[in-house]
Amino acid sequence: GTKTVADINNVSFVLPTVALLQAHYFKLQGIFTDDFPANPPSPYNYTGNPPANLQTTNGTKVYRLRFNETVEVVLQGTSLIAPFNFFVVGKGLGNFDKGKDLSSFNLVDPVERNTMSVPTAGWTAIRFRADNPGKTM
Predict the structure, then answer these.
(1) Which of 11, 52, 59, 78 has the fewest CB atoms within 10 Å, i.e. is most exposed?
(2) Distances, alpha carbon 131 to alpha carbons 14, 104, 119, in Å
(3) What three-state secondary structure class fits 7?
(4) Residue 71: strand pairing partners
(5) Residue 134 and residue 137: Cα distance in Å, rounded?
(6) Hey, CA dihedral for 96, 121, 35, 23, is it positive or negative?
């Protein structure tokens, strides 16, 4: 009865019944959890044949960032699912390889965007500074 359209780190976002900032501000329990995974818990060859079970879960999970923290996110395109301002620091084909791909990042004058594409069977890395908090801790 359900179909995965998109997920990040094997979590498909579920729209909460109360806004996340409102739930945080009023300390409402049961609206979201703080256990969003920093990395995919079940990695596989994203550009090859997908596994029979992606082990995707549904949830309203958050990942807390420190104020003014520099954040880097790698958006990995897959062979399964087609393809705010941030800086595009790298892009490539195949699976992202931290050991070799980081050396090709443009950290001097990266392009600033509010939308971008992820190559089919490829990846794109973005960076932004978490300097506009939606709430205070």
Answers:
(1) 52
(2) 26, 26, 29
(3) coil
(4) 128
(5) 10
(6) positive
